[in-house]
Amino acid sequence: MNKEKKGLNICVLARVMPAHAKGGMQDHTLSLCEELVESGHKVTVITTQHPDGLEYENLNGVEVFYLRETEPIKYSSSWQKESVRKFIELNDKLNFEIVHGQGSGGLPFLIQKVNLKHKIPTVISFHGTTYDEIRSIYNVMTASGDLKTMAGSLKGILWHLQHYASIFQPVRRAEGVIATSNEQRDILKRMYQLPDDKLYLVYNGIDVNLFKPMIKDRTKLSEYNLNEDDYVLFAVARMVEEKGIQNLIKAMPLIISQTPNLKLILAGDGDYRFELERLADELNLKEKIIFTGSVSLEELPYFYSNCDIFINPTIRANGYDLTILQAMASGKAVIVSDIGSIPTVINNNENGVLVQPGNVEEIAKSVVDLLSRPDFREQIGKMARERIVEKFSLESMTEGTIKVYRDVLERYK
Q1: Element of type H or E holding 264
Q2: pTM of the entire structure?
Q3: Choice between 317 and 406, residue whose per-residue pLDDT is larger
Q4: 100: which strand partners?
Q5: How far apart are CA 87 and CA 137, in angstroms?
Q6: Average pLDDT for residues 254-276, to the nearest whole number?
Q7: For the segment 345-384, what is each residue's pLDDT rounded down to a tens digit?
Q8: Choosing a second label site near 354 at 20 to 30 A (CA), which of 2, 50, 92, 199?
């Protein structure tokens, strides 16, 4: 009988956690950490300042340290300094075995060569790439046509190019680099010239027991005055231009002309919300579009269960949003932009429908087509659920991450 391997002592560096704001990155980080603890490992998280000034909390066994001298969420000079200082302080007491940086949260550790100085193997997960960020900025810039927006976009592209140059060598110092999609694995390999034995593929995962097919119950959303015979489209996103919600709103008159008994629920908040509400009013859609504001992770299953189609019209070329996985796990037909890492998750017309990013007419046509074919819609939802359970569960993500840790530690000996 094989002797069970002992749990690992892991330090996670992450600039954002659920206490800071709602979002996929923070949900992913906490879910992974909780699953690691559940699997018998010790996990300590170092993150930016808590909004309420809290310095420490224990979240289901995950020990989280918030750095008061940093700016919440931001990858700032104070984070670069304080995250390393706190790691050294905690490492003197806890003797970490491995460090896992979530995105930019782990970069200061590599830039300052802390992994080399303290002889501790370091893994970094990328949830996006500089290449994707530049493509996303370009998409927003070309869609806008506004000179002020274009000037700001060019400035953003320049910043990302400079950032890439500054982290090229630090990323190569990591003992392991995790890509979360097939597309990003290929991009990271080219961008950082990484050898195959340093580059890993681990898909993000969600709780397939929380997000699962449920019986439609409109009383759960009674405050939104939905009728039993209403078709419901649902989208959830940060209200920023690159999420492409404006294109979904523009598609609504075309959809309604074919399906009058339809409403669109938009969950999320952000700086662009006012512009989206203005657009909805301009198109006389006030009675057809419901802005809910932010929705908690625990509330989301009720929205998925009561919608007929989930839509993510993003023009952001990056990783796949966790909301796509959640909707698919809920057995819903999804319509998603064919961009970035989305093809890792969706096979077109098999477990979802892919549309050209920013194409208003194609969005409308896809919605009308799915609503007119209930059997096809149900079949796509069923296949979507199977895809997520098989490849994108919390369990498979955690197992994959632990395998990365073990492999890196074995090679580091």
Answers
A1: strand 262-267
A2: 0.89
A3: 406
A4: 12, 123
A5: 34
A6: 96
A7: 999 999 999 999 999 999 999 999 999 999 999 999 999 9
A8: 199
What are the two backbone dihedrals, phi and then psi, of residue 344, each rounded to the nearest 5 degrees?
Answer: -60, -35
**3 state SS of 381:** helix
> 162 burial class (0-12, 13-18, 19+ CB within 10 angstroms)?
exposed
Who's near 145: CB < 8 A, 6+ residues apart?
Answer: none
> Which CATH number among 2.60.120.10, 3.40.50.970, 3.20.20.70, 3.40.50.2000 corresponds to the domain 9-205+393-412?
3.40.50.2000
The closest alpha carbon to 26, from 204, 178, 156, belongs to 204
Domain with CATH 3.40.50.2000 in the chain: 9-205+393-412, 218-391
Output the CA torsion sign for 267, 268, 269, 274: negative
Q: Decide: helix, strand or coil at residue 288.
A: coil
Token pair for residue 319?
A: 């990783």
Spatial CA neighbour of 12 closest among 103, 130, 117:
103
Question: Is 218-391 CATH 3.40.1390.20?
Answer: no
Q: How far apart are CA 332 and CA 279, in angstroms?
A: 27
Count Cα atoms within 13 angstroms, Cβ side, for 358: 14
**In 68-146, which ranges are continuous DSSP H helix?**
77-94, 107-111, 114-117, 130-144
pLDDT digits (tens, 9 = 90+) for 294-337: 998 899 999 999 999 999 999 988 778 999 999 999 999 999 99
